[in-house]
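Entry:
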Amino acid sequence: MIKFTLGGVTVQQAKFKQLPSFLAAQAQAALVSLGTTVAAEIGASYAQRSGFLASRMVVKSQPRKNAARVVIANTAKYALAYEFGSKPRTTKKRGRRGRMPAAHNFVPRVMKAREQLVPRIAAIMRAEGLTVSGA
């Protein structure tokens, strides 16, 4: 067994051990900023008849030990039906009651936000001296 002892490595080791939590904190801040912007954008895109859907947009910050997480949600009971629509409805006597067409406001905007997040996270990692490829 060969053993090497290098001077000054303990400082770098300590910094390296703290890197995941530091990067997670930086990414969390970027996620909260982007999540708030996207939630406001989604709320503004909803039909403004009563404003209930827009008022129910929520951004929850849920940081983890070495990970960043933000949940963007709409807590209105009918938000899912508004986003994805409903099938045609009829009565027992075959009377037509129509259907609700899909609005597709929420999902496309969240997908775009995810695409915008990748370069932000890559920039945070590059600022710490890490090499990032494919972003």
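The longest helix spans residues 9-45.
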